Amino acid sequence: MADETKHAGGRPRKGSLEFRGKTWHARLTVTIEGALRKWFDLGTDNKAVARRKLAKLVAEIAKGNAPSIEAVADAATAPESMGDVITRIVTDQGREGLKTWADRLSRLQRYALPEITHLAPSAVRAHHIKSILEGAGETLSKQTVTHLRNDLSAVFGDLWRDEVIPENPVAKTRLPKKLRVDHRPRVQLNDREFAQFMACADVTEALHLKALSSRSFGGQRTSDLHAWDWSHFNLTTWETAKVYRPKTDGDVTQVAETELVELVLPEHLKTMLKAYGTTRSKPTSGPVFPVLAGERAGQKQGKRSHARELRAALWRAGVHRPLPGFDAALVDLRNLEAALAAERAKGSKGKVRDLQRWRLRALDVAQELDAVQSDCDRTRCADFHSFRRSFNTALAAAGLNVQQAMALAGHRSAATHMLYVDLVQRGPLSMPEAALPVLPRIGPKLAPTEAVANDDPADLPSDSSENRTRVTGVRGQCPNR
């Protein structure tokens, strides 16, 4: 029996479009007690919408989901549901290069769709968007609510440009006031702590190299490291390598793209990368940090966080920021670990199980009292992105101007760049020589207790530069006034 979903030559049926009267119509072959070709009104004068409806109807008919001619006609005139619109637009943005399309789709499905799933796209108003944002603001941070508003703007902006809706309702809304903002900085490792982490033999080579690459080569994000490919390196001289940088025009409704920027490799990173590549048969292409196990071994890593892996490695390396009570908790933990090792050597299974449970509880207590491992009143715990923050902070501490630092870090906005700079993490700051005031030189004639008011004006230094000195090096008591 011939397949009614295909033409005689085997080509899949796609239907056809024709503009009749005031709307587009679709000619479809419907198999209900035999093949029947019929024109269906699609209920729209927008050809782009008509094409999408035609493709959806053809797919439904091919699956056998057409119980009657009337059902097909009703489906043809029905507007797209908001669920279909969101899925279609965001998926298309992913095909066009949006790296975070899956996150966008997830946010919209969780926080926006429940509020507007019953509405047609043309029925969504600004008060619906306001309700979505206010509801999300009750549990989400300001940053996430901002992302959600940008997501909605991207979807309804596409509908507006396709003339499916007369205006973008998101443009009429603002972020709710008093959204939750966590101003606590993330823990950034200082140079001593970073060296201690890099010297730990219990940390994997890949994690060492990822951390060093982020800390010293463009402040690479986790996604940048996952996308890093051996083809981005000059494998002949090892002098330079390319890193991904975002490329946007400042319009949140546009799809973000990326570009590759070439930077000079630091000597210490170059040495480690060459050794790392040598142990992997000197690849010339493929991901630098691929999936290591499973069905996708050797392939590019997807979106994932290294925060827990990093904190576990910092714990093994002994990098701690003790909170009150940490030292006592750590002693209790070490005593339990020693007792557990002793009981394992004896083969006492019952005691081993009890000690294992107690050890896990003691470990939780100790890590709660370590600012590297858990949030506290003043800081949030360390995450992998803290290496990017440390990179930007180090650029500022090294005296680079904002333009150079932004170019190295790949920031397009000075305001965004400054959020990553926390010079408090660098310790006490010294005053630049040029920023210090000048004072009269204290000569041997002036005793520390001698009143300036009794001095002969001729004995005071003139205003020439050779008789003036900076405050640096001036010592002794101030003369009595």
Summarize it:
By secondary structure, the protein is mostly helical. The chain is built from 16 helices and seven strands.
Output the keywords.
about 475 residues, mainly alpha, three-stranded antiparallel sheet, two-stranded antiparallel ribbon, 16 helices, disordered N terminus
Shape: globular
Mean pLDDT: 82
Element order: H for helix, E for strand: EEEHHHHHHHHHEEHHHHHHHEE
Structural class: mainly alpha
The major pleated sheet works out as: 3 strands, antiparallel
Number of strands: 7
Percentage of helical residues? 40-55%
Radius of gyration using CA atoms only: 33 Å
Report the β-strand fraction as a percent range. 5-15%
The low-confidence runs, each spanning 5 or more residues with pLDDT under 50, are: 1-10, 247-256, 446-455, 459-481
Report how far apart the termini are.
Answer: 113 Å
Count of helical stretches: 16
Strand order of the largest sheet: 1-2-3
